[in-house]
């Protein structure tokens, strides 16, 4: 079994999910960590018994890892991924692919040019509930699929934005609730609809009293090529993090995915539910689920190159949908403003 030497770049909130997974899988070894905040890098290096760096290029030059995982602010995903691939490393990036679509495209081009593998984390696709929902729809068990609805009603305030200034602006984050919190739900809706997007009508708002530039609420209707309607409502103006809900409505039944679990109610009265996975929670916060270790294990699977490439193509399609939502709502982002 090939052993992969892996570095993690960015030692903030999500990084422990990667470091724990890399330390516990049989074919991966965490060999280096990096953060521009030296204390964060040092603490992670001490915890996982590997060298700590503040400059990722120096780390890659000195350690020659097989792969790097990017746990960085959104605007850094593309430039750092491109640099690392040009230095010969495979890259597994956290979601979103990048702060904007243009940078995401550059990542794919670098992967093609260098031959390095590029993957993007969307760990909620690996929840048992998501897997059952996808399978049931793909097998036609809901009959003709008519609509997919996604709802996220969470709470984020200025204390949250103070924990990482990059989260506040379109330039550094690429958006607010849409690209940061609700992207998993949007991605699941798009994945379940399983067709290209042909039209998007959306509104994007800032209703709350945070000092962030980025939106805190968005709603809209997506029309998919197969006629499925995708309705979404995402906000971080709630007083608590309510359970995320994804619903699919078909001619033969309805399904609901919530809390990572899926329940299908068929028209004839039968009910089907997923079996919860037995994996222990691994990482920073329980809300991120157990999907990270599953997706990271897939990234290092033998003969898994095409599946890894698919994760990048899927991430690109979700990134494009985000750009389309902003464009529909008249929000100026790097994707909607001309380069000239
Ligand atoms: N999959 C999930 O459910 C999930 C959950 C949370 C965050 N994320 C994603 O993970 C990524 C990081 O988010 P976070 O919440 O951990 O952010 P964070 O701000 O807590 O961590 C980012 C870290 O990157 C470091 N950094 C910045 N520039 C750097 C550079 N040039 N070199 C090295 N380190 C640098 C920062 O100092 C910081 O410690 C984002 O893409 C975010 O969307 C994903």
Q: How are the SSEs placed, and which strands pair?
A:
Elements: E1 4-9, H1 15-24, E2 28-34, H2 38-48, E3 52-53, H3 56-63, E4 67-70, H4 74-86, E5 90-93, H5 101-114, E6 118-120, H6 128-138, E7 145-153, H7 158-162, H8 170-173, H9 177-181, H10 183-193, E8 197-205, E9 217-224, E10 229-235, E11 245-250, E12 253-258, E13 261-266, E14 271-273, H11 291-299, H12 305-328
Parallel strand pairs: 1-2, 1-4, 2-3, 4-5, 5-6, 7-10
Antiparallel strand pairs: 7-11, 8-9, 9-10, 11-12, 12-13, 13-14
Helix pairs in contact: 1-11, 4-5, 5-12, 10-12
The structure holds nicotinamide-adenine-dinucleotide (NAD).
**What is the top-level CATH class of the largest domain?**
Alpha Beta
Span between N and C termini? 50 Å
Q: What structural class is derived from the secondary structure elements? A: alpha/beta
Task: Calculate the mean pLDDT score and round it.
Answer: 94
**What is the strand tally?**
14
Tell me the overall shape.
globular
Order of helices and strands: EHEHEHEHEHEHEHHHHEEEEEEEHH
As a percent range, the share of strand residues is 15-25%
* Largest sheet geometry: 8 strands, mixed
Neighbour order of strands in the largest sheet: 8-9-10-7-11-12-13-14
* Rg (CA only): 20 Å
């Amino acid at each position: 079994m090939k052993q992969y030497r892996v570095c993690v770049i960015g030692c903030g909130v999500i990084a422990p999910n990667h470091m724990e997974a890399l330390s516990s899988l049989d074919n991966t070894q965490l060999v280096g960590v990096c953060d521009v905040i030296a204390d964060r890098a040092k603490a992670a290096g001490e915890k996982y018994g590997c060298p700590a760096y503040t400059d990722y290029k120096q780390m890659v030059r000195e350690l020659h890892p097989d792969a790097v995982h990017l746990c960085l602010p959104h605007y850094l995903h593309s430039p750092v991924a491109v640099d690392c691939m040009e230095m010969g490393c495979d890259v597994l990036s956290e979601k979103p692919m990048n702060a904007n679509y243009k940078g995401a495209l550059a990542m794919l081009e670098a992967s093609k040019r260098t031959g390095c593998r590029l993957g993007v984390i969307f760990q909620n696709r690996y929840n048992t509930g998501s897997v059952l929902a996808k399978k049931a729809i793909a097998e036609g068990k809901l009959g003709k699929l008519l609509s997919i609805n996604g709802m996220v009603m969470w709470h984020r305030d200025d204390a949250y934005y103070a924990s990482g200034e990059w989260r506040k602006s379109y330039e550094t984050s690429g958006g607010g609730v849409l690209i940061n919190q609700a992207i998993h739900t949007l991605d699941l809706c798009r994945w379940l609809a399983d067709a290209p997007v042909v039209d998007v009508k959306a509104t994007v708002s800032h209703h709350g009293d945070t000092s962030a530039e980025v939106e805190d609420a968005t709603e809209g209707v997506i029309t998919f090529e197969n006629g499925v309607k995708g309705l979404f409502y995402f906000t971080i103006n709630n007083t608590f993090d309510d359970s995320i809900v994804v619903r699919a409505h078909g001619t033969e039944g309805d399904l609901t995915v919530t809390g990572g679990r899926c329940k299908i109610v068929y028209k004839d009265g039968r009910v089907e539910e997923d079996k919860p996975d037995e994996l222990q929670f691994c990482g920073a916060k329980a809300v991120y689920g157990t999907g990270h270790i599953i997706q990271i294990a897939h990234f290092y699977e033998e003969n898994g190159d095409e599946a890894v490439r698919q994760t990048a193509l899927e991430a690109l399609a979700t990134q494009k949908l985000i750009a389309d939502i902003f464009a529909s709502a008249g929000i100026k982002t790097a994707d909607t403003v001309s380069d000239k």
